[in-house]
Amino acid sequence: MTPRATDRARYDRATAHLDAPLAVVDLGAFDANADDLVRRAGGKPIRVASKSVRCRALLERVLARDGFSGIMSFTLAESLWLARAGFDDILLAYPSADRAGFAELAGDPGPAAAVTVMVDDMAQLELIDRAREGGREVIRVCLELDTALRLLGGRVRIGARRSPLREPARLAELARSVVRRPGFRLVGLMAYEAHIAGVGDTYTGSPVTSAGVRLMQRVARRELTERRAASVRAVRAVAPDLEFVNGGGTGSVQHTAAEEAVTEIAAGSGLYVPSLFDTFASFSGRPAALFAQPVVRRPGLGVVTVLGGGYPASGAAGRDRLPVPYLPEGLRYDRREGAGEVQTPLVGSPADDLLIGDKVWFRHAKAGELCERFDALRLIGGDRVVGTVPTYRGEGRTFL
């Protein structure tokens, strides 16, 4: 049997008593992926991106391992919830306009000590100040550096559109505003290089594209290493007690960790290893999070229909955002129908061996978004379900 066929047999045995749809996390693969992230980080701590996990039990599991420290959250409401659940080092990676949340943060010493908020504009500081409603707790602040690569005098821009702060001088200017403003403390600097950490460099059948992406990423890494170091120096000149400089992502862990200016790495998707990471040559992981849909129809030779399955990932719409039929090997979508809201036809020779009620296993294109479709994850150890844990959704929390 191939490794994938062996995994299918394990998952089918483990969940034989359970009806699909269902979602699982293979703990052996999850832990192996965690070990690989730590190895690639080369001794620098990894801050876990909660949006890529969206399950408190699994956040606790990975943070109990050596090499991991702290959470990178995605909304203020989530940050407050996690702080009240006992997590004590939470970096909110995106600016917020949640006035009620800021009032709660400023009025409670527990969350205020645990949560750091993201700022890249004076208007965000002013919003927080107006939202305090008399709260006197000091707000911990992190600034974000724009990491995009700009070529041809700025006419070509490669990278996510995030922070407006690009030059060290502008970061230092905002840093001075934070330091001078009562009720705030500047504690961190973050720079997420999405065009390196989140873009694969191996495209089957397209060697020219693959080579072009690798060249772009080499140039981008060199440019960002210099600019990030200069930005850190500029901010530390204003705030010498800066606690952390966060960078990276699953796809660039080893490269970012090599930068002296960076003190910690962000990663999360590498724990589940969704299908978008199949195009990365710099590392390989084991798919750990999967979902199963039941076969409900056999329309003809070489075709089965499963219930639901239309769970596209966020980002620019395209086939790479669809879940991947993974087990049994050899199934694919009908091009005219794709992944359906209520039913999904799958074609390929393995269809003829599937019976009504059998499970087809899929991988989501992205990591944590899978958890918005299921209220529980079945944890698989070997060929047994060894536990069931709620997702954020299962705990009644849908933050975005």
Structure description:
There is one protein chain. This protein is of the alpha/beta class and 400 residues long. It has two domains: 3-21 and 288-392, D-serine dehydratase-like domain (Lyase, Ornithine Decarboxylase, Chain A, domain 1, Beta Barrel); 27-268, Alanine racemase (TIM Barrel), CATH 3.20.20.10. It has twelve helices and 19 strands. The protein has helices at 3-14, 27-41, 56-63, 76-84, 99-106, 109-114, 122-131, 168-180, 194-197, 207-238, 253-257, 269-272, and strands at 22-26, 46-49, 68-73, 90-92, 115-119, 139-144, 149-151, 156-158, 184-191, 244-247, 264-267, 289-300, 303-307, 324-327, 332-333, 343-347, 359-363, 376-381, 384-390. Strands 1, 12, 13, 14, 15, 16, 17, 18 and 19 form a nine-stranded mixed β-sheet that branches. Strands 2-3-4-5-6-9-10-11 form an eight-stranded parallel beta barrel, surrounded by six helices. Strands 7-8 form a two-stranded antiparallel sheet. Strand 18 and strand 19 (384-390) form a beta hairpin. The radius of gyration is 22 Å and the shape is globular. The relative contact order is 0.17. The model has no long low-confidence stretch (mean pLDDT 94).
Give the helices and strands, then pairings.
Elements: H1 3-14, E1 22-26, H2 27-41, E2 46-49, H3 56-63, E3 68-73, H4 76-84, E4 90-92, H5 99-106, H6 109-114, E5 115-119, H7 122-131, E6 139-144, E7 149-151, E8 156-158, H8 168-180, E9 184-191, H9 194-197, H10 207-238, E10 244-247, H11 253-257, E11 264-267, H12 269-272, E12 289-300, E13 303-307, E14 324-327, E15 332-333, E16 343-347, E17 359-363, E18 376-381, E19 384-390
Parallel strand pairs: 1-18, 2-3, 2-11, 3-4, 4-5, 5-6, 6-9, 9-10, 10-11
Antiparallel strand pairs: 1-12, 7-8, 12-13, 12-17, 13-16, 14-17, 15-16, 18-19
